[in-house]
């Protein structure tokens, strides 16, 4: 394993919105480059250990805060113009362009965590990816949730979000352990999409005028944990169905089989699950000529 260096940068989106990002540079020339797409309301620092691991395997890596999240909050969060659609159409393509600028002429990959994998079909430059690997990316459809989680999910989506937006002008997700505070448009779209089928498919012809979901045919691997209340196997396949030309490889991870207490929706990227990270790096390395 090699050493890595990190560099904080500002990425300017097409609509001139600046977002904060971190570039992980391997000491040796990068064999490939990886963009890590974060889950809804999760700051880029959460992926630091995982990004360092990928860098040690020879990949250049970029992590970022979507607009309205973490260090990409510009001004009052209640006045943020952020939305899930803007994350996919503006933020992710700009970050991908920054990755390509820092690591030119190598194979490019994306690791999507939840929303980071759900939204990639909104990227106009998504076809420059060689392959992608998602963890916990699903439609999040409430109708497919386990009964034990359904009441909690309905409360957050259909009670907490509307009331919080009304009272505070944004969703105080941190109060219920759901990441960073969310701009109201992000939370509102999240609510609508999880009450439908196919997540972003709910917005086709409405908030989403054009997209790449029907054109994406690159290789993909979809990882999910058997103890994930949100990205269960039914919801993962519901999300995959939106990619009509894609053949996806799906792998379920059981905590018991991998000697961990829990994986859930978040723990895959924690150091307790670092023995699972080769499932991502080994998948990408098969597309690299070394």
Radius of gyration: 18 Å
Give helix and strand order, one letter per element, not per position: EEEHEHEHEHEEHEHEH
Figure out the total of helices: 7
Distance between the termini: 16 Å
- Which outline best applies? globular
Largest sheet: 8 strands, mixed
| SS elements, strand count | 10
What level of helicity do the residues show?
Answer: 25-40%
Order of strands, main sheet, comes to 1-2-4-3-5-6-9-10
**Strand coverage percent:** 15-25%
Low-confidence stretches: none
Query: Quaternary state, please?
Result: single chain
Alpha-beta classification: alpha/beta
Your description of this structure?
With 290 residues, the protein is an alpha/beta fold. 28% of the residues lie in helices and 20% in strands. The protein has seven helices and ten strands. It has helices at residues 48-56, 84-102, 115-118, 147-168, 184-194, 233-240, 278-285, and strands at 4-12, 18-26, 32-37, 59-64, 108-113, 131-135, 170-171, 182-183, 220-225, 248-253. The chain has an eight-stranded mixed β-sheet, sandwiched between helices. The chain has a two-stranded antiparallel sheet with strand order 7-8. β1 (4-12) and β2 form a beta hairpin. The mean pLDDT is 95.
């Amino acid at each position: 394993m090699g050493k890595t260096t990190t560099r904080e940068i500002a990425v300017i989106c097409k609509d001139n919105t600046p977002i904060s990002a971190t570039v992980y540079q391997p000491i040796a020339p990068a064999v490939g480059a990886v963009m890590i797409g974060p889950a809804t309301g999760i700051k880029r620092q959460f992926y630091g250990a995982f990004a360092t691991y990928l860098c040690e395997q020879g990949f250049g890596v970029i992590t970022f805060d979507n607009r309205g999240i973490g260090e990409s909050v510009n001004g009052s969060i209640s006045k943020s113009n952020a939305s899930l659609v803007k994350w996919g159409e503006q933020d992710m393509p700009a970050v991908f362009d920054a990755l390509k600028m820092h690591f030119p002429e190598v194979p490019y990959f994306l690791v999507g965590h939840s929303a980071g994998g759900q939204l990639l079909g909104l990227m106009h430059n998504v076809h420059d990816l060689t392959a992608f690997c998602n963890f916990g990316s699903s439609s999040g459809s409430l109708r497919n949730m386990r009964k034990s989680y359904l009441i909690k999910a309905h409360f957050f989506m259909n009670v907490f979000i509307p009331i919080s937006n009304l009272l505070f002008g944004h969703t105080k997700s941190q109060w219920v352990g759901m990441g960073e505070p969310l701009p109201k448009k992000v939370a509102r779209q999240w609510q609508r999409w999880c009450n439908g089928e196919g997540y972003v498919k709910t917005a086709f012809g409405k908030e989403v005028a054009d997209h790449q979901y029907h054109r994406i045919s690159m290789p993909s691997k979809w990882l999910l944990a058997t103890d994930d209340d949100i990205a269960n196997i039914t919801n993962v396949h519901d999300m995959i169905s939106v990619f009509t030309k894609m053949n996806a490889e799906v792998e379920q991870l059981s905590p018991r089989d991998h000697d961990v207490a829990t994986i859930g929706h978040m723990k895959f990227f924690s150091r307790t699950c670092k023995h699972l990270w080769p499932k991502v790096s080994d998948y990408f390395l098969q597309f690299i000529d070394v």
